[in-house]
Each structure stands twice: as C-alpha cells, then as structure tokens.
Amino acid sequence: MAGNKIKELKQISKELRVDVVESLANAGSGHIAGSLGLTDIFTTLYFSTLKTDPKKPNWKERDYLIVSNGHICPILYASLAKKGFFKREELFNLRQINSFLQGHPHNNIPGVENSSGPLAQGISFGVGVALALKMDSQKNQVFVTCGDGELDEGECWEAFMSANKFKLDNFTLIIDYNKIQLDGNIKEVMPLGNLKTKLKSFGFEVFEVDGNSIEKLIDVFKNSKKIKNKPKAIIARTTPGKGVSFIENDYHWHGKVLTGKNLNKALNELIE
C-alpha cells in the first residue's frame, strides 16, 4: 500500500485514540486499556479492509464486524463516528442516560451488528452468521474481535469446533492478545499456553501479527482472505493502553478513565 495511505491511516488512528480518551473522560467510567490497544486494528478494518456503507448500514453485501469483547466499545464507537455512521458529537454522550452509546453496544446503533455483554457469546454469534451466509452462497466476510481473557470461556471452544466442521473460510477471529484481563495478567489468572498450537488443533489457519502495526495488519488481512475451506484466526499482539506511556501494559487501567493532570498528560502524548 502506498506510503500516503499508510500515513493517512496512522493519522486516523491518532485521532481515534484522542476520541476514546476524551469520550471516556467525559463519561467518567469505561474501559480504556483495551480500547487504545485495539485502535490500530479498528482503523485498519474500517478504513482499509471492511466493505461497509455508512449510508446503508444494512447493505446486503457488507462485511460483518462482530465485537464479542463489547467493553472496548469506545473504540468501536469512535471508528463508526469517524466512518460516518453517526455524528462525532454523540461520542460525548457515552454512558449517559438516554444515549444510544452505552457501556456495551446494542444492535440498534447504526453499524453495530450485535448486542454484547457476556463474553464469548459474540464468537458463537459470528460463527452462526458466517454459517448462514455460507448456506445462502453469499460472499460476505465475518470478522469477530475478542479478548485473550475471553478465551477462558468454554463457549469459545465449542464455537471453534463448529467453525472447523463447517469449513467457514468466511470467518476470521481477531484475538486481542494483550496479556491482561480485569483482575490480573493472563499468565496469573488463566494461562493460555501455546495459543497458536491450540487454535491450529481446532482446525484454524493461524496468523500472528503486531496488532499495533498498521502496515503489518494490512498484510495479514489481505493474506488471510486467500485461505479456503477453513476458518482463520489472527493472534494480534497489542499493547494495552497503547499511546499513553504511563498506562501501557498495566492491567489496573483495564476499566479506569483518565482525569485531571493525567488526562492532560495523556492527550499531550497522543497529539504529539
């Protein structure tokens, strides 16, 4: 991809991180670490990879992005607003009474495919959508984002078996492999072991990528589309809190927001 396009995507990513930080600060609650860590992935998906039309959210030929780890909705909302599904001003109603942008997304929001809450359900939902599209001989692609801590849920692995059985090559799982979850580091709470080997044993074609490199993400999405007759999994190694030095890789920031001097310091780092 041309250098100018990469530069444009990096600028969009920077703007989305600012929107995430500001909208969460305004809300006074929410999940910042995962949202910032996934920003480059959402930028690459919405502005380089997915077939979408903000003017026709239910366009029959669209690709589906299903967010199973719904608590990272601040970056989903920021991406949808930037893409034109709704006005940016709505971001600053996040988590407010009567706002349609709540702490977990609902499928009444333009561009949102699934309501979320309990972890892992989005993965099963995504497998079902991919299977239905296959049965109807449709070419739409289904992408599902999930967290690494989410893989503690047994439902994930049941869904993976189904994706393999039905050879869902229109299904791509994107794992936010940031190695933290709500109350600790993955290796302390529930070690995942060799995740790539596990996923391959469930029939997936597995890719590993730096989830904060837009250049590498573009390549991995392009290469994964070439795989036929099996589901795909992308293990995206991300930095939680990416872009704000003093919260990066610290699980304590999983569900906190920035205030006061910390907020100003973070915005200065992101704008530089």
What is the CATH architecture descriptor?
Answer: 3-Layer(aba) Sandwich
Strand content: 5-15%
Number of helices: 10
Order of helices and strands: HHHEHHEHEEEHHEHEH
Give me the count of strands: 7
Q: Mean pLDDT across all residues, rounded?
A: 95
Poorly predicted runs are none
CATH superfamily: Thiamin diphosphate (ThDP)-binding fold, Pyr/PP domains
Using the alpha-carbon principal axes, give the shape: globular
Structural class: alpha/beta
Radius of gyration, Cα only, in angstroms?
17 Å
Number of domains: 1
What is the highest CATH level, the class?
Answer: Alpha Beta
Question: The CATH topology is what?
Answer: Rossmann fold
Arrangement of strands in the largest sheet: 1-2-3-7-6
Cα distance spanning the termini: 25 Å
Describe it for me?
With about 270 residues, the protein is α/β, with parallel strands linked by helices. It has one domain (about 5-270): Thiamin diphosphate (ThDP)-binding fold, Pyr/PP domains (Rossmann fold, 3-Layer(aba) Sandwich), CATH 3.40.50.970. It has helices at about 5-25, 35, 40-50, 75-85, 120-135, 155-165, 185-190, 195-200, 215-225, 260-270, and strands at about 65, 140-145, 170-175, 180, 185, 205-210, 230-235. The strands form 2 sheets. It has a 5-stranded parallel sheet with strand order 1-2-3-7-6, sandwiched between helices. The relative contact order is 0.17.
